[in-house]
Amino acid sequence: MNQNQVLSRLSCKDINDYSFVKMLGTGSYSEVFQGKNKTNGEETAIKVIDKVFLAKQNKSHLIYLESNALMSINHPGVIKCYATYESNTKLYLSLELMNWGTFRDFIKGRQLTTTDIQFYAAQLVVILEQVHKKGVVHRDVKPENLMMTQDKFIKLIDFGAILLFKGNDVTKEESNIKFCRKSSFCGTGEYLSPELLDNNCCGPQSDLWALGVMIYELFTGKTPFQSDIEYIMFQNISDKEPNYDLIKDQNAVDFIQMLLTKDAGRRLIEAIENDCDYSILKQHPFLSNVNYETLWQEQKEIKEQPKFERKNILRAKTTLVNDGVQLILSGIVDKHSGVLMFGQYTPRTMQLIQKHFSQELFYYNPYKKKNHQIELINAKCKLGNDGEFVITSNNKKYFFKQREHPATQWVALINNAISYNKQFQQ
């Protein structure tokens, strides 16, 4: 894209200078549309952030974080933010439009060569180096948040969950791990770091951990701590080491082991202390053949390789857990804790399973590492307002809010489970 094209986008003085073509995606407090400049027809992605919703959630500080971060990072591996527009209730971000799918779409069922994995690993190292040098932790690095370009390069997107770890705007809620800050449960299960699960904190180390998970996945077709049951996966992240037998390249194994160091206080801490200079990664034998001067100018041809099955239990709608046990629905919800008017919602993983002749409901508390069962015998489940649903069981009420799946879906499936269990009681 040349300078004139960028300037033409900036020439839009108001959000009304764009027409909204179609919706591209939604988030918890934002929507993304394909937009078109009414004057010259040039296309852009327009992210619409709901300021009112964030204010109600006491998260007004998040409104400008994403746009400020994107404006400060000028790198071909990070999505561009051309301009921002604002109304009383909305913030609009004019973003680079990406039409070639996500990295997840690209790797699905595709076994990359070691050379191709090195190509993408090198890009990710440089991207995270640039982001971290600006004092930004992305907090949700995963294949779904990487977009492909027409030339098969990758760009990091979705800075809506970022956290600052250096600079004047950094929160004072520091943890006892250097560079880590107190953090809510944020990110995607398979890529979460031990420090977030065990200490409710994250830092640049957490993004590097996610990088290690992704490179392992590129070699093996699965994430290193994967389990059919999410709370077991969290225990694996905290306590178990990956199985490296499937990776034949020993330099790759050593590289991944550096990134998957359990202790965040030792995970590449010297590099982070040195202004996030990741030369130790860029010069590692695994990436020794990469020319960083020309990395983003290479014409890359990805060779087709024999495909393998990517077993991804947590993305399946209904999945066999083990003999006689079936996963009906799994996802993150927000659970209300405390006195009703003064409590707060915090994330939990909820799972509804079929176990022989009964259906059972569990939720997992990642902070206390405890799994709780809600008895579905003589229980009731009702839909509330604004994505809320309430389960009454044994004279106790559980208040939840939708996050990963609609509340209507949870209510329908839980009520089906209650009816199903009654049939086998009779």
UniProtKB/TrEMBL annotation:
Signal peptide: none annotated. Pfam families: PH_3, Pkinase. Keywords: ATP-binding, Kinase, Nucleotide-binding, Serine/threonine-protein kinase, Transferase. Residues 18-287 form the Protein kinase domain. Its EC number is 2.7.11.1. ATP binds at K47. GO terms for biological process: intracellular signal transduction. It comes from the Eukaryota. GO terms for molecular function: ATP binding; protein serine/threonine kinase activity. Belongs to the protein kinase superfamily. This is non-specific serine/threonine protein kinase. It comes from Paramecium pentaurelia.
